[in-house]
């Protein structure tokens, strides 16, 4: 029996994880569930899975949830705040932690799980983009097991030889090919991109996801963050990572070897596949995912990404090559710009403009410890706020 903490249990990944847990009551037991604001969405999963703890973002939310659970006779202890998040991610009774909080807010609890040597199921790519070197060092020092949930990285993990993560050099890997759907604006006339709405950006053709990652997919910043994520997870430089636009989202990514072999992982676009893979690894379990029907799919298409259409992808490659604080600044500026876009304060194309200005200001800034990462993140958010104010219409 494996005990799991799900950080971000009310989100899209959190809910898919609970679905997989619910299919295997003989294998998995829930230790803790966490949410930020939507404490009401934790009531039903607490009643069903009876975790030892639930963690929410504020004392008011904790009070509401505790009262609702008490009234139904549920013994779950309700906590709140950052220290509690880190506590349930690192508790001695926890075997694995699903890191599915969105954005930099997930960094500290995810790092706590890594430092405590847990099996870390990593969906929160922003944590790795922000603090890749520190995070990977924590994993190596504690002997934690890091399993990627992001579908592309999970695919690459499946296509790499077992044990690759610990011994990258002799495996004969030539390139990592990350596939990308191209999002909802792959073919939108460039002149129309300035005026697209948050609702259009969140209408992804193949995947149902949280709003932040949906906007990232529309700008292809999601793929940019994934390039940086792949760099840290698989120890490969930017030049060994290629992005391939593949609109069907059936091939989730590939690994090319020195002998010319290319290994791909295929499946229907359903996050329960990588989630179940990582939870059961090295075994395989049922995930509730519809089998892939190749006859129905019939064809697979591939294109080169258009960097003029998707400047965010270029900015991410630039940030990875630059090193230092650039990736942390890219991530923080993007989070703020996406929030402003979702709030109708800036236009879609302003997202890349805001990030580019912040990156210009961060040139030469180093990050060698967690405090420096947190400071660079805060600094970039200030710069981004100023850029966003300059661009807000009617200000
Ligand atoms: P979501 O918006 O649906 O859910 C986010 C979760 O994080 C919620 O449970 C929310 O309560 C919690 N949260 C938000 N802000 C918080 C804060 N400040 N403190 C504590 N908790 C907070 O997001 P999602 O789509 O499930 O994505 C989660 C993560 O997984 C992201 O990093 C995303 O990039 C990654 N990811 C998602 C998908 C997908 O298909 N949804 C695929 C690959 C990777
Ligand atoms: Mg992905």
Summary, kept brief:
Residues 146-234 form the 1-deoxy-D-xylulose 5-phosphate reductoisomerase C-terminal domain. The chain is of the alpha/beta class and 395 residues long.
Provide the gyration radius in Å.
Answer: 20 Å
User: How much of the sequence is in beta strands?
Assistant: 5-15%
Q: SSE order, as H and E? A: EHEHEHEHEHEHEHEHHHEEEHHHHHH
Q: Look at the structure and give the mean pLDDT.
A: 96
Structural class: alpha/beta
Uncertain spans: none
> Count of DSSP E strands?
11
**What are the bound molecules?**
nicotinamide-adenine-dinucleotide, magnesium ion
> What's the overall geometry?
globular
Question: How would you describe the overall organization of this protein?
Answer:
47% of the residues lie in helices and 15% in strands. It is built from 16 helices and 11 strands. The termini are far apart. 47% of the residues are buried. The model has no long low-confidence stretch (mean pLDDT 96). Bound molecules: nicotinamide-adenine-dinucleotide and magnesium ion.
Describe the protein's topology.
Elements: E1 2-7, H1 12-23, E2 28-34, H2 40-49, E3 53-56, H3 59-71, E4 77-80, H4 82-90, E5 96-99, H5 107-115, E6 119-122, H6 125-142, E7 145-148, H7 151-159, E8 173-180, H8 198-202, H9 211-219, H10 221-234, E9 241-245, E10 251-257, E11 262-266, H11 272-280, H12 294-297, H13 311-322, H14 326-342, H15 350-362, H16 370-391
Parallel strand pairs: 1-2, 1-5, 2-3, 3-4, 5-6, 6-7, 8-9
Antiparallel strand pairs: 8-10, 10-11
């Amino acid at each position: 029996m494996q005990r799991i903490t799900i950080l971000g249990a009310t989100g899209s990944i959190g809910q898919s994880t609970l679905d997989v847990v619910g299919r295997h009551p003989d294998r998995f037991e829930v230790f803790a569930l966490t949410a930020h604001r939507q404490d009401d969405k934790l009531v039903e999963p607490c009643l069903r899975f009876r975790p030892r703890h639930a963690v929410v973002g504020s004392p008011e939310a904790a009070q509401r949830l505790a009262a609702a659970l008490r009234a139904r006779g549920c013994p779950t202890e309700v906590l709140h705040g950052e220290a509690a998040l880190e506590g349930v991610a690192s508790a001695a009774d926890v075997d694995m932690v699903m890191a599915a909080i969105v954005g930099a807010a997930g960094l500290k609890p995810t790092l706590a799980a890594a430092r405590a040597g847990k099996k870390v199921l990593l969906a929160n790519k922003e944590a790795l983009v922000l603090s890749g070197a520190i995070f990977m060092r924590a994993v190596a020092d504690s002997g934690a097991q890091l399993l990627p949930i992001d579908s592309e990285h999970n695919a690459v993990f499946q296509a790499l030889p077992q044990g690759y993560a610990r011994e990258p050099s002799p495996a004969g890997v030539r390139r990592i090919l990350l596939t990308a759907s191209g999002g909802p604006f792959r073919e939108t006339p460039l002149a129309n991109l300035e005026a697209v709405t948050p609702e259009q950006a969140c209408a992804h053709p193949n995947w149902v996801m949280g709003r932040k990652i949906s906007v990232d997919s529309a700008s292809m910043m999601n793929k940019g963050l994934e390039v940086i994520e792949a760099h840290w997870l698989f120890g490969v430089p930017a030049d060994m990572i290629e992005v391939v636009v593949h609109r069907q989202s059936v091939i989730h990514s590939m690994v090319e070897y020195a002998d010319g072999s290319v290994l791909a992982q295929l499946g229907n676009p359903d996050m329960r596949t990588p989630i179940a893979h990582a939870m059961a690894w090295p075994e395989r379990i049922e995930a509730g995912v519809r089998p892939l029907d190749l006859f129905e799919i019939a064809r697979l298409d591939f294109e080169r990404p258009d960097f003029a259409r998707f400047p965010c992808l270029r900015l991410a490659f630039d940030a990875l090559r630059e090193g230092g604080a650039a990736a942390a600044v890219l991530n923080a500026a993007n989070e703020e710009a996406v929030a402003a876009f979702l709030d109708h304060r800036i236009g879609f194309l302003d997202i890349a403009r805001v990030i580019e200005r912040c990156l210009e200001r961060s040139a030469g800034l180093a990050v060698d410890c967690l405090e420096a990462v947190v400071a660079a993140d805060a600094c970039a958010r200030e710069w981004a706020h100023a850029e966003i104010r300059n661009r807000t219409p009617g200000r």
